[in-house]
Design goal:
about 0% strand, two-stranded antiparallel ribbon
Length: about 325
Amino acid sequence: PMPGFGRALAKWIGLCWLGMLALLAADAASQVDGRRRVSMAWLAGAALAAVVAWCVTIAFYLGDAARGLVGPLLSHYGSLPPGPYPRIRGVFANANMFGLFLLLSVAVALHARDAGWWDARRLRGFLVLVSLPLLATASPAISATLLLLVVHHARRTDPGGWTTRPAVLLAAGLVALNLLGLSINPAAPFAEPSVRAQLWSQALAAWQAAPWTGQGLGSPAIQVFYTAPDGQLQMLDDAHNTWLNLGVQGGILAPVLFAMVVATACWATRDEPAKAALRWGILLVAACLCLSSSFEDARVLWILLGLSAGAGSLAALPVRQQHDRHG
């Protein structure tokens, strides 16, 4: 069924807001000083979020009273087994979204280092600061961040050389292992599909029912009832896959347009090695995280897409015009 007018209108307003964020970021990044200011503001926010996550972790182990105070910043365990460990979402909708933010923050930090705005010591300090919060998300962003660091190190130490190719192959292999792990039900391996496999199957069937027009913007992609390992009964109406979610709602055009936006942002960073970390961050999100979560409405992703696209527009200008634009 088509979504109600209210849900479709809210979706359109949200899309316009995301597009505006990307355009504002692109405009700021079209000047070198503007790109630096946006990057520094992003990293300051990431550092603050990481400090809060450290405090939440400490409070989690101080006892029930302290744990109750930070309860709103903790996430449910989802399909993970519950245990004596915190899963932190901070001020984000869920832990996977917080993991996405931290992954992109590492990409921005590597870009700041390559652009000469940060020295190696500051970068190392930032990576140490975000390491525990990233682990506390218990999300696929952990492996994606490790791959980003491996690829970035390989390209810096041997640009275009033989060490880069194994890093890329490692990235592709880990993506495949990640998807394989998510498709296996730990309670009954190879006997029953995992919850994500059920979600993807239903979403694919829903997309096939309306491949060109989709079900309509704002419509729930699927409906799966799931008993989590902690015993909580959940009703999931999201495909937990960005590409399938877009296809179900908007038909074939929606994922194609999103892919074009991603490709444009990546293409804009091709000419300057200092921007390679931004490109790899975006590619890892599109090729890895977007296959296991729905991030099409993530504001931080759209800001980074705009930041990368705007950074490329500066490189396209003649040197004299670049100088005129930032004094």
